[in-house]
Amino acid sequence: MLYSKTTPEAKRRLLRELLVPGAARQFPGAFNPLSARLIEEKAYDGVYISGAVLANDLGLPDIGLTTLSEVATRAGQIARMTDLPAIVDADTGFGEPMNVARTLQELENAGLAGCHIEDQFNPKRCGHLDGKNVVDLPTALKRVAAAAEARRDANFLIMARTDVRAVEGLDAAVDRAKALVDAGADAIFPEAMKDLREFEAVCNAVDVPVLANMTEFGKSELFTRDQLAGAGVAMIIYPVTLLRSAMGAAERVLDTIRTEGTQEPAVESMLTRARLYELVDYGSYNTFDAGVFNFTVPGPTDA
Ligand SMILES: C[C@](O)(C(=O)O)[C@H](CC(=O)O)C(=O)O
Ligand SMILES: [Mg+2]
């Protein structure tokens, strides 16, 4: 009922235990608080909160238009709905190193277990698109060091993302990853790796957990959990998968209503009313007020 009773501190401790090299923990991207519940119910390890999803959800492209307040508020709403640790995409940190420090503290306040900060500059873009720009090494290091310095809970995970692979190649990306760890990064997100060998090279070069981004329609093949575990990856994200799936379903049902004059043929593939109520834990609210849920709901719960 209501929100998770697991404290942010406990979630951060849990995250630290989960992120073992080769464990390949799976973090699907939640597109709203309710989908975080679904992720937890399906026994995933954690929840990812994608910057692309937060921007796209507002009808905006993922080019650094969202603000720290928007991201912290929405990420907080998602994180509080689940006992799982949630990691949020903090893009470039929302400004200069001083702003990155504030970003870190706001995300701690919002109950996140960790975040990643990247080395692109604005206007940034999806890491799997061509034509990216990255900041120089000293600036990238300053961002991470500022975040580490601002942190109040030592278990809040600061992950450094580097977009250098697509700009200067793998060797440069490996060098930058090492330098980011030296500057205080607790984990590395090497963006736009081409193949498993590249993931392996990064995992071998640093002794912190490494993330693999399995985003669809990108530069990386969609590797399986076993393949990524074999390469030494600690954590896998599926950042936009649920949003793409939900919007795909929404588009199809809109077409059905338009062509058939009714949604009837699509009802079979919908989440039933009963299942939806189960997910929002409607029944438990009876412990507060027996008059809240005193009716029966038609339909199977597992459709
Ligand atoms: C991981 C990512 O940063 C995100 O915002 O989810 C994106 C995902 C995407 O656009 O597919 C990325 O830059 O890879
Ligand atoms: Mg992003």
UniProtKB/TrEMBL annotation:
The keyword Mitochondrion does not apply. It is an enzyme of class 4 (lyase). PROSITE patterns: ISOCITRATE_LYASE. SUPFAM superfamilies: Phosphoenolpyruvate/pyruvate domain. GO terms for molecular function: metal ion binding; methylisocitrate lyase activity. It catalyses: 3-hydroxybutane-1,2,3-tricarboxylate = pyruvate + succinate; (2S,3R)-3-hydroxybutane-1,2,3-tricarboxylate = pyruvate + succinate. It comes from the Bacteria. The keyword RNA-binding does not apply. Its EC number is 4.1.3.30. Pathway: Organic acid metabolism; propanoate degradation. Pfam families: PEP_mutase. Keywords: Lyase, Magnesium, Metal-binding. Its cofactor is Mg(2+). One of its GO terms (biological process) is propionate catabolic process, 2-methylcitrate cycle. Catalyzes the thermodynamically favored C-C bond cleavage of (2R,3S)-2-methylisocitrate to yield pyruvate and succinate. Belongs to the isocitrate lyase/PEP mutase superfamily. Methylisocitrate lyase family. This is Methylisocitrate lyase. It comes from Zhihengliuella halotolerans. The lineage of its organism: Bacteria, Bacillati, Actinomycetota, Actinomycetes, Micrococcales.
